[in-house]
Design goal:
Helices cover about 40% and strands about 20% of the residues. It is built from 15 helices and 16 strands. α2 (about 165-185) packs antiparallel against α3 (about 225-240) and α8 (about 345-365) packs across α9 (about 375-385).
Length: about 475
């Protein structure tokens, strides 16, 4: 097969994180009873007038500022003619020209290199309702309509056709999702339909400057599905061209079960949606002060925070990546450090406890860190007790079990259970003598030069002390006695 280049463009739709919809006061709560969160506006009753949600506008502008967009000061809306049952009024309120945000950029790390992907626009619009074609796995011979999602605020982000592989597309989407979540602009939960993407794929012979025939894959709602669909579609197009066939511009759907794309409709050119100005939402201008105040509210973004964690706290690339993977985890970590007496000493152990013990427990219970029964203050106290020798690492794990189960502070658990670490040399000396007497073979090996043999004697001391012996002190005493 000849060599071909793959080109990908993404249209990403993200539900805006507001309590009410973009053009009415209905709740955006996910999972409510069908059609429970509706009113005369979002069910498109005649004469109902939309009212713009200020927070939705702010979320789009913050996203634009974080991605270095030009913010257009004039805010206008249009009606996009869209004849489909999920929009009863037969048009969608959206933005045509100008969008709120024009010409931005997102730099991604991919394959050991940085790449800047140019983004054409971000605009604000309303979501459609949802058609339901099956219930409990049973396919229906009719469709049901749920308008809870209708008029929920959406921001649509459109990239330039500059992405060159499925892996690169996923790197872009992951980076975008992290930033938007940090901003609090959207939850970007793909399993709840709060982040979806249309994927445009084309291939062309290597060296050809003109892009190939574009095929759009609609309504992708999982990263694994997007990766598989791009991989399949690029290969399908290459095989068509290599066999002398001709590609047609069309819209296709991804069939996850069969692992293939299927033709949905031909698309000779851009669909004529017959945009015209939305008469019920008059244009208005955004002031410089309004935009600059939003810029001041931008949080430290994931890349900058990760670099700071590595530099300021001496964390590894792995630890810093995990701790900055969400704003909530990063905030929890820094709160814990602020409760620590010695930030420098506590930085690495606190990172370890969060990324291993705490995250493991939370994952088992399908909780996020905001639902953690262990507060940032208590995890800082636990690490402080390890660092000052009050408890051993082994005892700390026992204490942590109670902390997670009962939301209690570590000092009270240690006191109740009598788990204070034994650091009295005389008391430990007696236990070490007993262990040496009971470990004749290990003692002989140690004296013969096998220094690792001391480990089994240390283990016996820890067993005799029920894990409460100070392990560093035990090592020191045993070496002295064996010499």
């Amino acid at each position: 097969m000849p060599n071909y280049q793959t080109t990908i463009g993404l249209e990403v739709h993200m539900q805006i994180n507001t309590k009410s919809k973009v053009f009415c006061e209905c709740s955006t709560q996910f999972g409510a009873e069908p059609n429970a969160n509706t009113c005369v506006i979002c069910t498109s009753q005649p004469g109902a007038i939309p009212i713009l949600n200020r927070k939705a506008v702010e979320a789009v502008i913050k996203t634009g500022l974080a991605l270095n967009f030009t913010i257009n000061k004039q805010c206008t809306f249009a009606r996009k003619q869209y004849f489909y049952p999920d929009i009863p009024k037969d048009y969608q309120i959206t933005q045509s020209e100008p969008p709120l945000c024009s010409r931005g950029q997102l730099t991604i790390n991919f394959d050991g290199k940085e790449k800047a992907v140019n983004i054409t626009r971000i605009h604000l619009e309303e979501d459609a309702g949802k058609l339901i074609h099956e219930i409990g796995g049973r396919k229906l011979d009719y469709s049901l309509l749920d308008l809870n999602r209708a008029s929920v605020g959406l921001m649509e982000l459109v990239t330039e056709p500059e992405i060159t592989s499925a892996d690169e597309a996923i790197a872009f989407l992951n980076e975008l999702r992290d930033i938007v979540r940090y901003l609090g602009a959207s939850e970007c939960s793909m399993e709840e339909g709060k982040m979806r993407a249309d994927v445009n794929v084309s291939v062309r012979p290597e060296g050809q400057s003109e892009l190939g025939t574009r095929v759009e894959i609609k309504n992708m709602n999982s990263l694994s599905g997007i990766h598989a669909a791009i991989t399949y579609e690029a290969q399908r197009q290459k095989e068509v061209l290599a066999s002398g066939g001709k590609l047609v511009q069309e819209t296709r759907l991804w069939d996850d079960e069969d692992g293939i794309t299927k033709s949905m409709r031909s698309k000779e050119g851009a669909l004529d949606y017959r945009y015209f100005p939305e008469p019920d939402l008059v244009p208005f201008d955004l002031s410089d002060d309004f935009i600059e105040n939003l810029r001041k509210e931008l949080p430290e973004l994931p890349k900058a925070k990760k670099a700071r964690f590595i530099k300021e706290y001496g964390l590894s690339e792995y630890d810093a990546s995990y701790l900055t993977s969400s704003r909530q985890i990063a905030d929890y970590y820094e709160e814990a450090l602020n409760f620590s007496k010695d930030k420098k000493a506590a930085a690495k152990p606190i990172a370890n406890w969060i990324s291993t013990e705490l995250s493991g427990k939370l994952n088992l219970e399908n909780k996020d860190i905001a639902q953690s029964p262990v507060s940032s203050e208590n995890i800082a106290k636990l690490v402080s007790m390890i660092l000052d020798g009050s408890i051993s690492g082994k005892i700390a794990k026992i204490v942590f079990e109670d902390m997670f189960a009962k939301s209690k502070d570590p000092q009270s658990i240690v006191k109740e259970k009598g788990l204070v670490q034994i650091s009295d040399e005389n008391a430990l000396g007696k236990i070490c003598d007993e262990a040496i007497k009971e470990s004749a073979s290990a003692v002989a090996e140690y004296k013969a030069g096998k220094e690792r043999a001391i480990g089994s004697i240390v283990g016996l001391v820890m067993k005799k002390s029920k894990g409460q012996a100070n392990p560093q002190l035990v090592n020191k005493i045993l070496i002295e006695k064996l010499k």
